């Protein structure tokens, strides 16, 4: 089963569903209690082998600069990135307990690593909300370990979903990209100071890691290739 806020607009997911008859596409807004409850009614008592919490909200960069912070957006970042994944997991834990694999995956972020923070120091709401998620997942790991339920926090890497890799060092920065990512960060990507990977590279590595995840797997917080991430 795959979920998203607006299935009618999710062309890639709709194609995936058409190509895979066993895949069910459902509506889910992880910030909305009634939306989650509607999903629970659809799932019923189905066992869940694997739960992947993938939803996230980055938000535009300018309202996340000190002196310009948009606190409504700050709140939304916490609702989506920190609260939503835990809320969904709490609602679905009975289904995970019935599963054979019993694996719960959260997508964390290097941006939420306190030990790894480095310039450009922007994205206040995104960084803080991801750091909050990391703490909750760490708690959950210890909470569920006695039940042999596997919990893992994976940084997918800096994944190019918008065409950053096509930029050359001297290319002007398209406005559409500067609205998504701080210009300082884009320049570092152009200069090769921050490596990006493709979606295929990231997902392939994460699938391999998840398939080999066991109750003894450590550390809890890892990069998509399984290497340790600093908290």
Automatic annotation (TrEMBL):
InterPro entries attached to this UniProt entry: NAD(P)-bd_dom_sf, SDR_enzymes, SDR_fam
UniProt-recorded Gene Ontology molecular function terms: oxidoreductase activity, acting on the CH-OH group of donors, NAD or NADP as acceptor
UniProt-recorded name of the protein: Oxidoreductase
């Amino acid at each position: 089963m795959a979920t998203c806020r607006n299935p009618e607009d999710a062309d890639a997911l709709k194609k995936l569903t058409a190509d895979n008859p066993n895949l069910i596409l459902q509506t889910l807004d992880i910030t909305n209690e009634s939306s989650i409850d509607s999903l629970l009614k659809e799932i019923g008592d189905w066992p869940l082998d694997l739960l992947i919490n993938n939803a996230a909200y980055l938000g535009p960069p300018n309202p996340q600069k000190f002196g310009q912070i948009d606190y409504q957006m700050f709140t939304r970042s916490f609702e989506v990135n920190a609260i939503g994944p835990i809320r969904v997991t709490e609602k679905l834990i009975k289904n995970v307990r019935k599963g054979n694999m019993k694996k719960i995956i959260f997508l964390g972020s290097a941006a939420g690593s306190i030990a790894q923070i480095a310039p450009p120091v922007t994205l206040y709401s995104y960084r803080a909300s991801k750091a909050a998620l990391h703490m909750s997942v760490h708690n959950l790991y210890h909470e569920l370990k006695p039940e042999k339920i596997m919990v893992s926090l994976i940084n997918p890497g800096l994944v190019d979903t918008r065409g950053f890799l096509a930029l050359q060092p001297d290319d002007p920065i398209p406005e559409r990209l500067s609205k998504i990512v701080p210009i300082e960060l884009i320049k570092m990507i152009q200069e090769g100071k921050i490596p990006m990977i493709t979606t295929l590279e990231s997902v392939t590595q994460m699938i391999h890691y998840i398939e080999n995840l066991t109750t003894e797997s450590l550390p809890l917080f890892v990069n998509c290739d399984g290497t340790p991430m600093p908290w």
